[in-house]
Write a structure and sequence with these properties.
The protein has about 130 residues and is an alpha/beta fold. The chain contains 5 helices and 7 strands. A 7-stranded mixed beta sheet has the order 1-7-6-5-2-3-4, covered by helices on one side. β2, α2 and β3 form a beta-alpha-beta unit. It is globular and about 35 Å long. The two termini are about 15 Å apart.
Length: about 130
Amino acid sequence: MKIFKPDKDSFELLIKEKPKKIIICSPWISTEGVKMLTETILSRDLSEMECLEIWFRVTTDDFIFNRTDYQGLLDFCQQIVKTCGLSILSLRQDDKLHAKFYQCDNSYYIGSANLTLNGFGKNIEIMLVSCQG
C-alpha cells in the first residue's frame, strides 16, 4: 500500500482495461468528475463488466450550490445502460454520505478526495492505494 495525491492520471490507472466491478463512492461528483468517469470508464472494454456501483449524496445544499452534476451523472448512467445493460448499474444515495472510495476489481483508493476538479487536482488530498492483479 502507498499514499499519494490523486489526479486524473491516477484515476485512469485505477480503471483496468477490462473491468468487471467498479465502485465509485463520492458525496460530490462535479462536471469534471463526470467527465473523468465518462472518458475513463467508457473508453475501456466493458464486455466483461458485471457491476458498476455509484454512491453519492443529494441534499438541498448540494443541489443549490451545484456540488454534483446530477444531469451529467444521469447522462453517464444512460450511456452505461446503453452499453452494458441496466442490470449492472446500481445507484445509491445517502444524504449523510461522507466517505470517498474508488474500486476497480481488486484495486482501490480510499481517502479524502471527492470526484471533483478540486478533489483530483487543486486541493491537497491524499488517498491510500491498494493495487492487486
